[in-house]
Design goal:
It comes from Duganella aceris. The protein is built from 7 helices and 11 strands. By secondary structure, the chain is α+β, with helices and mostly antiparallel strands. Strand 9 and strand 10 form a beta hairpin. The longest helix has 15 residues.
């Protein structure tokens, strides 16, 4: 070995010995969509609990991520966790608001008992009005569903507020059960949101 190679090797060894680390990845990628490992909702830091893809037949419809104050692996724990929460959805294909709204209602009805559906009906109707304001969800559009204790559920489309606040936590939990209920919209998305590898 010549002297230059030895010096370079020693310099590299010294550099690595100083505790240099490769940067940690600050996002999880699903179908080309990046989900930050943490987000802030209502001034609180939330962690990415899990993320996955909603498929219908063979088509990838959207990528979704669930954010909670602390990671949870069971549906009961997710529904009971205190503090703010977020579901982040990024569209992977264009979908009409009618189709998206229908899928939402089908998922809600399939996973919510009749008495609870009656209780949250006014908020469900308000949520339906949100989809009436949007003709189409385009590929790349981001829909956020945030729950803030003491305030309610707020929807955002591409960082812009849409619709009114829906104050009842039972409504937000009913929305979560679309993906996490006994009859989830996508059986492979449910375990992904619960953080299963």
């Amino acid at each position: 070995m010549n002297r230059r190679i030895i010096l370079k090797s020693m310099a590299l060894a010294a550099f690595l010995a100083t505790g240099f680390e490769l940067p940690a990845f600050a996002a999880t990628e699903v179908a080309g969509v990046k989900f930050d490992d943490t987000v802030t909702v209502a001034g609180k830091e939330l962690k990415l609990n899990g993320a996955g893809i909603r498929t219908k037949v063979i088509f990838k419809v959207y990528a979704a991520g669930l954010y909670l104050a602390e990671k949870k692996s069971t549906v009961a724990d997710v529904l009971a966790v205190p503090g703010p929460r977020r579901v982040a959805i990024t569209m992977l294909r264009e979908v009409s608001s009618d189709d998206f709204g229908k899928a939402f209602m089908d998922g809600l009805n399939a996973n919510t008992e009749k008495t609870e559906r009656t209780k949250i009906l006014p908020q469900t109707m308000k949520f339906g009005e949100v989809f009436a304001q949007i003709q189409t969800l385009k590929k790349g559009d981001q829909l956020l569903l945030d729950w803030t204790p003491g305030e309610g559920t707020q929807c955002y489309l591409n960082a812009k507020k849409i619709g009114e606040l829906m104050p009842d936590q039972a409504f937000y939990n009913a929305v979560l059960r679309i993906w996490l209920g006994d009859k989830p919209a996508d059986t492979s998305l449910k375990p992904a949101l619960l953080g299963e590898k």
